[in-house]
Design goal:
The protein is an alpha+beta fold and 126 residues long. The chain is built from two helices and eight strands, in the order αββββββββα. Strands 1, 2, 3, 4, 5, 6, 7 and 8 form an eight-stranded antiparallel sheet that branches. The protein is globular and about 50 Å long. The chain starts with a helix and ends with a helix.
Length: 126
């Protein structure tokens, strides 16, 4: 019974992952652009292929790679006028490439911290 429940959980996470990718326009032909590396060794990339941008707002996928080998993909919203950012959804992979967390995130709009990876991305967009 426990194996079956684990199987169902993995299946649901996998389906959610593909739904999130399909709904938000991330394709297998992602065009990842290197943004930079933070002081703790995390590397940041943006997907130019998924970028939806106006003169006031943007929505795009951001990939954060950690020194331990785990990777997190964030669907982010950015607001130019208020210099704020919010996480719309997140998919986290462990070092072996297994999805360990996926789903929508109900994040608030947060002020972009100066000289942070989010400011680097903001500066690339506008």
């Amino acid at each position: 019974m426990m194996r079956f429940l684990r199987f169902l959980r993995v299946l649901l996470v996998g389906l959610l992952f593909f739904c999130v990718l399909g709904i938000n326009g991330v394709s297998q032909a992602a065009d990842w652009y290197y943004v930079g590396q933070s002081a703790n060794g995390d590397t940041f990339f943006i997907d130019n292929e998924s970028l939806e941008k106006t003169s006031l707002q943007a929505k795009l996928w951001v990939r954060k790679g950690s020194p331990d080998g785990s990777t997190i993909y964030y669907l982010m919203g950015m607001d130019r006028e208020s210099r704020t950012v919010k996480v719309i959804s997140r998919i986290k992979y462990d070092v072996s490439g297994e999805v360990v967390e996926a789903g929508a995130v109900n994040s608030e709009w947060l002020v972009i911290v100066p000289d942070s990876p989010m400011e680097w991305i903001y500066s690339l967009l506008w």
